[in-house]
Design goal:
By secondary structure, the protein is of the alpha+beta class. It is built from 3 helices and 5 strands. A 5-stranded mixed sheet has the order 2-1-5-4-3. The protein is globular, with a radius of gyration of 17 Å. The N and C termini lie close together (about 5 Å).
Amino acid sequence: MAFEPEPIVTVCTSDLAGQVRGKGFPARDLDKRWQFGVGWTPTNSMINCFGRIRATPWGALGDLMLIPDPEGQVRLDYPDGPGEHFILGDITTMDRQPWNCCPRSFLRRALADLKAETGLNLVAAFEHEFHYDAADDRVGDSYSVGSLRGSRNSSTS
């Protein structure tokens, strides 16, 4: 009997190590995830580019939410297999306030400060390339889009 994979949506954040990391959930749960997001811990933001977690003030403690931003939604459809659906999100406290260490919140605050101090608006584009060539897992893929892709390539018969 062939295994039919369930569609997965991943809420992602770009972390301080320059990695896109996140958590996935069944696509059927997307409506409730727009409001509640997925659980996230502060220490997840401290995974370095080699997949290691340095000493942090939080350890395994602390609860945060990774809330999807509808404007950060990306769908990639592939003719020969399951597509990808990921959404950039904001890291918030449990009461939905921006977490002090959320990279997206850093940027919003910096842009607001620039406008308040100078009256200027920054207009810019950022290009981030995803390259995937069916590579083996690599160190540093914890919570990453790469690890999700790896799980989609394996199937059970």
